[in-house]
């Protein structure tokens, strides 16, 4: 009798497993923006139609949602997509989103903004076209403190456990992608493009973020390919092509009060091609805040005709004369930095520039297998400059090292 009961129980469990396995996987509900009033004619403002679709997808209770932008050109004024949402959302862009040509028609800091969202996925073969050429002549911020504020292309604030994949951002008015207080976010397969002389068009800019992964991405801009600002930790960058642009920059730091430490950065298997800088850490003199920059690893980095391949600059002053210039040393402490297998060519004779703070000298900077040759003929071989730095050398060192 016990045997029969056991066999019956096993049969019931098997039937339950078969039934469960045979149930179709619940697919997300698809919201095609064209079926909800959007027009791909390149001139009708679709901002209201897009936000209406977002609200329906975001508030949907029974399962995840997918917002789909098909091929075509969708003109879009400034728009915000705000959570929290009931379930995960996919935003698939296969068409072109077209920004207003006149920057004054965007009444916010960011053209397309996502806020307070978890489990967001943005992907597709589409393009974010910032229509920059009307905006760049207005950008005179290097000489005018009252310069007009231009909009970033796409922003993420308080967005967690999310990703962006395969999208192209073209010719932003200001920066391309901006991240603030974002945690656990993957960026992969993204293409970011603007001319090398376009002002302030940072590729990816982030502050107060953690656990960000950037991989297999091409960035060519008129400013930093990636800008890493106050409070960012646990950032992993790999297989990135940077150029044109100003390199991968930490900072600038120390100008404002209440800035936070920047820690745990890894940059590996990356190429800098024709950039003004490659590896760059920049802090202001006479810093307003005392913070720590630590635990950085740069490994397997190829420099091709880079202006300053390795550049630690603790006397940062982009447009002299600077307010902080000649008023004291930087209070930003840089320590525990490893640079390994950095190779290629430098446009300038000084290929390694390590200018640290006299008040807070750089500590534990490791140079391992550095091979950076000057591509100029008349000025002679590449050189290194060191100020206020403590560190060590291992393996090959071109240029000849200047560490004590």
TrEMBL record:
Main location group: secreted
Record's signal peptide: 1-22
Pfam families: Glyco_hydro_28
InterPro entries assigned: Glyco_hydro_28 (IPR000743), PbH1 (IPR006626), Pectin_lyas_fold (IPR012334), Pectin_lyase_fold/virulence (IPR011050)
Keyword Coiled coil appears in the UniProt entry: no
Active-site residues, record numbering mapped to chain: 246
Compartment(s) where it occurs, according to its Swiss-Prot or TrEMBL record: Secreted, Cell wall
GO biological process, one term: cell wall organization
SUPFAM superfamilies, per database record: Pectin lyase-like
Keywords: Cell wall, Cell wall biogenesis/degradation, Glycosidase, Hydrolase, Secreted, Signal
One annotated GO molecular function: polygalacturonase activity
Entry similarity comment: Belongs to the glycosyl hydrolase 28 family.
Protein's name according to its UniProt entry: Exopolygalacturonase-like
Naturally occurring in which organism (per UniProt): Arabidopsis arenosa
């Amino acid at each position: 009798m016990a045997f029969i009961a056991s066999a019956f129980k096993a049969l019931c469990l098997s039937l339950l497993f078969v039934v469960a396995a045979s149930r179709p996987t619940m697919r997300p509900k698809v919201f095609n923006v064209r079926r909800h009033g959007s027009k791909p004619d390149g001139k009708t403002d679709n901002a209201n139609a897009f936000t209406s679709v977002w609200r329906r997808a975001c508030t949907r209770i029974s399962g995840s949602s997918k917002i789909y932008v098909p091929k075509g050109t969708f003109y879009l004024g400034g728009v915000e997509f705000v959570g929290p949402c009931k379930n995960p959302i996919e935003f698939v862009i296969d068409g072109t989103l077209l920004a207003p040509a006149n920057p004054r028609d965007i009444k916010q800091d960011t053209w397309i903004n996502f806020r307070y969202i978890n489990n967001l996925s943005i992907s597709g073969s589409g393009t974010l076209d910032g229509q920059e050429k009307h905006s760049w002549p207005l950008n005179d911020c290097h000489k005018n403190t009252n310069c007009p504020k231009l909009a970033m292309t796409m922003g993420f604030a308080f967005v967690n456990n999310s990703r962006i994949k395969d999208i192209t951002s073209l010719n932003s008015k200001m920066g391309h992608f901006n991240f603030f207080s974002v945690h656990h976010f993957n960026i992969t397969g993204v293409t970011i493009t603007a001319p090398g002389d376009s002002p302030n068009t940072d590729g990816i800019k982030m502050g107060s973020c953690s656990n960000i992964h950037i991989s297999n991405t091409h960035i060519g801009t008129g400013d930093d390919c990636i800008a890493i600002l106050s409070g960012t930790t646990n950032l992993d960058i790999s297989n990135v092509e940077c150029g044109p642009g100003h390199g991968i920059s930490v900072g600038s730091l120390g100008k404002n009060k209440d800035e936070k430490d920047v820690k745990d950065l890894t940059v590996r298997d990356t190429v800098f091609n024709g950039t003004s800088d490659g590896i760059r850490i920049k802090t202001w003199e006479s810093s307003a805040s005392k913070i720590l920059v630590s635990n950085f690893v740069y490994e397997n980095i190829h420099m091709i005709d880079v202006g300053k391949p390795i550049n630690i600059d603790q006397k940062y002053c982009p447009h002299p004369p600077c307010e902080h210039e000649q008023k004291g040393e930087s209070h930003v402490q840089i320590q525990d930095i490893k640079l390994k297998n950095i190779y290629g060519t430098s446009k300038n004779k000084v290929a390694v520039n390590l200018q640290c703070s006299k008040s807070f000298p750089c500590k534990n900077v490791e140079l391992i297998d550095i091979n950076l040759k000057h591509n100029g003929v008349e000025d002679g071989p590449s050189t290194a400059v060191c100020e206020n730095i403590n560190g060590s050398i291992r393996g090959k060192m071109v240029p000849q090292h200047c560490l004590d």
